[in-house]
Design brief:
The chain has 17 helices and no strands. With 307 residues, it is mostly helical. Among the domains are: 120 residues, Tetratricopeptide repeat domain (Serine Threonine Protein Phosphatase 5, Tetratricopeptide repeat), CATH 1.25.40; 61 residues, Tetratricopeptide repeat domain (Serine Threonine Protein Phosphatase 5, Tetratricopeptide repeat).
Length: 307
């Protein structure tokens, strides 16, 4: 699934009636503008200037600087800034959100959930945070908890195509292919250019035996993302199950073209070559798959290529 890319910036600045207040406010506004343009290093410098001018009244700048650090990969620095913001204002939901994202990036998933839960306590209408907490729960294996969070996010904002897809993946992992298809279909309705939703719906259709439907979805995903090796692999597999060996070999070859380290593509192409009686090509692909760590390919080599 997609990496979390939610960005939270605080857009207020505490009023400070001093000769430096206007200057601090100007730096703050400049920082927000630069952040909106993706100029995070420059924004970070502006928020730092605000903190230097008014350290006791710079809660929003600590939060925003923490967010900029998150985006730039300085997760520890982000946590430090968010801690300071929370110290200055324990009710600032955005600071907990940004700290949770930093902790998640560092692999501290349980602590990240604690922060997201605090955000929800402070702001029960935060659909994005329910969605993010669901992603973290899913990675921790709490699939049902993840579905509950995704469902709440959708209840709060029914236009979140990504969240329908995440919920579909969770339902698919529980074996509920029909419910997964319904979620992927809704995601596609909301965003017809959502290649991942087509790919995932193809998986579910394939599980239900609808090979033609799966092929149609994989084909659409490839149309939207022509370098998607996984969709070529899965379409090739579906074609092979329908007896279209030439079409399957074409797709497996394209998957390898876009990902030369794709062991599964070599393995599946070997199987089809074997079905066509092309033993030399099949064994060459099995050898390559084995070199890339495919265990079943090693067994196939012993059984078919060492006579």
């Amino acid at each position: 699934m997609k990496k979390i890319v939610i960005v939270f910036f605080v857009v207020f600045i505490a009023a400070v009636m001093t000769s430096t207040a206007q200057t601090a406010e100007s730096y703050f506004a400049a920082g927000l503008e630069k952040a909106e343009k993706g100029l995070y290093k420059e924004a970070l410098a502006d928020f730092t200037k605000v903190i230097e001018l008014n350290p006791k009244s710079a809660v929003a700048s600590y939060t925003n600087r923490g967010n900029a650090k998150n985006v730039l990969g300085d997760n520890y620095g982000a946590i430090t800034d968010c801690n300071k913001a929370i110290e200055l204002n324990p009710q600032l939901a955005e600071a907990y959100t940004n700290r949770g994202l930093a902790k998640f990036s560092l692999g501290d998933k349980y602590s990240a959930i604690d922060d997201f839960t605090k955000v929800i306590e402070l702001n029960p209408q935060s659909a994005d945070v329910y969605a993010v907490r669901g992603i973290v729960k899913s990675e921790l294996g709490d699939t049902k908890g993840a579905i509950a969070d995704y469902t709440k996010a959708i209840e709060l904002n029914p236009q979140l195509a990504d969240v329908y897809t995440h919920r579909g993946v969770a339902k698919f992992s529980l074996g509920d292919n029909y419910a997964a298809i319904a979620d992927y279909t809704k995601a596609i309705e909301l965003n017809p250019q959502f290649a991942e939703a087509y790919t995932n719906r193809g998986y579910a259709k394939n599980n239900l035996g609808d090979k033609e439907g799966a092929i149609a979805d994989y084909t659409k995903a490839i149309e939207l993302n022509p370098q998607d090796a996984s969709s070529y692999l899965n379409r090739g597999y579906a074609k092979s199950r329908l007896g279209d060996t030439k079409g399957a070999i074409f797709d497996f070859t394209k998957a390898i073209e876009f990902n030369p380290q794709f062991a599964e593509a070599y393995y599946n192409r070997a199987i089809v070559y074997g079905q066509e009686g092309k033993e030399t090509l099949a064994c060459a692909d099995l050898q390559k798959a084995s070199e890339l760590g495919h265990k079943e390919a090693e067994v196939m080599i012993e059984e078919n290529c060492k006579k």
